Amino acid sequence: MDGHGRIHNFGAGPAVLPLEVVNIVSSSMANLNGSGFGLLEVSHRSSFFQEVIDSAMNRVRRILSVPDDYHVLFLQGGASTQFYMTALNLLDDGSKADFLITGGWSQKALKEGRRVGDCASIWDGSESGFKTVPRNGEYEVRDGSDYVHYTSNNTLFGTQYHHTPDTGGVKLVVDASSDICGAPIDVSAHDVIYAGAQKNLGPSGVTLVILSPWAVSRIGGDLPTMLDYRTHISKGSMFNTPNTFGIFVLDKVLEWVEENGGLEGAIKRNMHKASLLYRELDRTSFWVPHADPGSRSNMNVTWRLRDQEMESVFLEEADKKGFGGLKGHRSVGGIRASLYNGCPLESVEALVDFMRGFESIHG
Ligand SMILES: *Cc1c(COP(=O)(O)O)cnc(C)c1O
């Protein structure tokens, strides 16, 4: 714990942010960048805020190597709105999309897609408890399918793709909410990328959306204004009042990422944190990791205790020792540690120490 009384926060989202960023945000509350306007009190139409949103968009472009002809948007409504919005903009009567179902979030995306067009699951890991993501060749894209949708990191189950799914040239749409800017991604291989900010990028209430020219060319007809990507492209994400606070924090988080080695640096730190924890989970059969080794997530690590009755004791003791947010999602149970960009190495080292101590007493 540091001087602010902060705990080791392993929550799945909204999640821990770098303390440096939190401090900058606090000091901007009364006066944003010397403008005299407080951060919560500044107009989105002011030059002060225009600088913030321009900076945030440029950082996204730099960090993720976004091709120049792609669009970067900051929307509201969370990744959950994108489940529907993506399908609404990309599909019309008679078009099809295929979904790789690797957990609760992909199931929800499919459900919303089905409201719009012919959407189908072409791979579903539910029967094996969502312990893996599919390997190339384990699914077949339907003839005439317009795109394949996948979830790059499965926040609930703790699995992650470590490759771009092969679709045989069919376009790719990805929900990257829980590993965006924390894991490798080839933006140019995708046509829509969307991500709620509250895991790796900042606070809740901002959704990053990246669109290829192909995605934009698909949009036709008269869509509801706020659900039409063209509305937000033409107004630079300021057709209506954006989440000014959220975009400011996102810009500061991405500044922190850039100052700490960019995407490469973030990937390295996240892999290192995850490997420390997986090494402990593999050390003894006291712990039972959920994900199969080839599909393990570096962002959300999920496990059970061999003796599941002991899990509540583990969580209680962890809580007393200053570890928060470790309770697994109700669909998996057990323990989950989220190790997003903002989670410091020291927190993971402290958790592993605590786990060793717990195992030596109860194992
Ligand atoms: C958290 C999460 C969501 C939901 O995001 P909201 O912004 O709350 O709608 C969707 N997909 C994934 C992969 C997530 O981790």
Overall description:
This protein has 10 helices and 14 strands. It is α/β, with parallel strands linked by helices. It folds into 2 domains: 237 residues, Type I PLP-dependent aspartate aminotransferase-like (Major domain) (Aspartate Aminotransferase, domain 2, 3-Layer(aba) Sandwich), CATH 3.40.640; 102 residues, Aspartate Aminotransferase, domain 1. α2 packs across α7, α3 runs parallel beside α4 and α8 runs parallel beside α10. The longest helix is centred in the last third of the chain and has 22 residues. Pyridoxal-5'-phosphate binds next to α3. The site of pyridoxal-5'-phosphate has 12 residues, from α3.
Strand runs, count: 14
Amino-to-carboxy terminus distance:
26 Å
Number of helices: 10
Which molecules other than protein and nucleic acid are bound?
Answer: pyridoxal-5'-phosphate
Level-2 CATH architecture of the largest domain: 3-Layer(aba) Sandwich
Under CATH, the topology of the largest domain can be stated as: Aspartate Aminotransferase, domain 2
The secondary structure category is alpha/beta
Largest sheet: 7 strands, mixed
Output the strand order for the largest sheet: 2-10-9-8-5-3-4
Tell me the number of structural domains: 2
Percentage of β-strand residues: 15-25%
Mean of residue pLDDT? 97
| Radius of gyration using CA atoms only | 21 Å
- Helical fraction equals 25-40%
